[in-house]
Design brief:
Layout lengths: L4 E4 L5 H9 L16 H12 L3 E8 L2 E12 L2 H4 L1 E10 L8 H15 L4 E4 L6 H9 L14
Parallel strand pairs: 4-5
Antiparallel strand pairs: 1-2, 2-3, 3-4
């Protein structure tokens, strides 16, 4: 997939990003595809876009957004004041699945974390996404921690 461009998302990409977030069993219950998009999506985009420790990225081919992910760069005191990168919300559009785009996006994200000085990159994946877990393990990630969430 050498014709893919990975770049910072713009507000014009929001409809495509939200559509990808909604296009799976978990996202279908969480996202709202009503037109026009809810203002909350635009407010969240602006918060992400203006935060230097956030990078919302898209994969584009022939002018169409076909993938997305978000990177968070977290400074911390542990590991001697190390910076760590977190990959979240990885999605590939249905028409682009199975072509290697997900791996290309993750490799790009890891390199972006390295470029910014991160000492590690981490990600989370819903416990029910067994295929995704195998995918991430195949890219060199290890299931080293147990995560917890609490809805508010």
């Amino acid at each position: 997939m050498s014709d893919i461009v990975l770049r910072r998302a713009t507000e014009a990409d929001l409809a495509a990003i939200v559509a990808m977030l909604a296009d799976d069993p978990l996202g279908a219950t969480r996202e709202d595809l009503s037109e026009p998009l809810a203002e909350s999506y635009f407010a969240a985009f602006r918060a992400i876009d203006t935060d230097p420790n956030q990078l919302l990225a898209v994969a584009e081919r022939d002018g169409a957004v076909i993938g997305t992910l978000q990177l968070t760069f977290t400074p911390g005191l542990s590991r001697k004041g190390a910076l760590r990168g977190t990959i979240e919300a990885v999605r590939v559009a249905a028409q682009a699945r199975g072509l290697g785009l997900g791996g290309q996006m993750i490799r790009w994200a890891v390199e972006e974390c390295r470029r910014r000085g991160c000492v590690m990159v981490q990600l989370t994946s819903d416990a029910s996404r067994k295929d995704a877990h195998r995918f991430y393990e195949g890219l060199g990630f290890t299931a080293s921690h147990v995560g917890f969430k609490r809805a508010l």
